[in-house]
Fold this sequence. Notes:
globular; binds zinc ion; alpha/beta
Amino acid sequence: MMFICAIGMESCTHRVYKNQITAQALSEAGIRKAKPKNIILMIGDGMGLTQITAGMYENNNHLEIERCPVVGIHKPYAANNLITDSAAGATAFASGVKTNNGYLGLDANGNKHPSLLEYAENLQMSTGLVVTSTIVHATPAAFFAYQTDRDAYEDIAIDMLNVDIEFVVGGGKKYFDRRLKDSLDLVASLREKGYFVSDYFEQDYNNWTIPEVKKLVYFSADGDPLPVSNGRTYLPKATQDAMQFLQQKNTNGFFLMVEGSQIDWGGHANDSRYIISEMLDFNSAIGKVLDFAEKDQNTLVVITADHETGGYAINSGKKFGELVTSFSTTKHSADLIPVFAMGPGSEQFSGIYENTEIYHKLKKLIGR
Ligand SMILES: [Zn+2]
């Protein structure tokens, strides 16, 4: 009996050992062979598998995301809660640490962990952020701010001046130039730092030809940008512009984060139409990014979400294009989250792993 057990254990150990060697060798070979020049991280806030399913079934059973050859799953929980918020979720991607809900760029003990965007800047890459929330909202903020309170928007705006991001599109102008806690004019400060600054009031984004400047900030709203259903259209064009702008600026490659921010807001509102219209807008941006990556052949695209919102479900009784849906909460859920990838290094993103691994995998692939 003992003999059989020992044999079994030995052969089992041997099998695991062999598999580890093979996986490690493959992974090292993969990294050596396939290091991308550019990295594009796309985050659908609150975009769980049901949000993706609903977008797909309401769009003739097709989404651009299906073009990604690699699919994985991450575990989105926070340090202090099984259910993460966007601050802890984005900090996991940006800085590689599980932290408390509400924290940005800090671990659960409050220690600062510089973001991937700052890492890319230090490697002389160009960087960009394009979002449909305010630019000081939790997800984009995790890439440049270090705060214990995600709602400290005016402090987060100050943090944005400390990082040299070349291309920024998002809402929240009032946190820069009509501040409540002080009389600083951060739009003027941005201009002093060499930024070209414009906004929705001066310039309709969709009719805008991006000027020949070194770096730019475009404020798409004073506070939160409109939902797609109320006329917001800039995300696909801003995503396209960001890729072109950053590529032209720099031969060292770029790091771009694009967020479909309001899929989450549709989930909080338990509004299926809101979720689907935001999903399809994000889908258009994904299409632009995958077109760019396919043509460029040197760009890694990773598409995921920070968490699911709404406990969203598709129920029986209807068919494609006529979904019957329901929700179990107006908050976030604890669901595992899909990850989609295309381009050099994309094979690193298959399997099941912690959300913080997205940071570690990207950092290894960015490393020059
Ligand atoms: Zn949310």
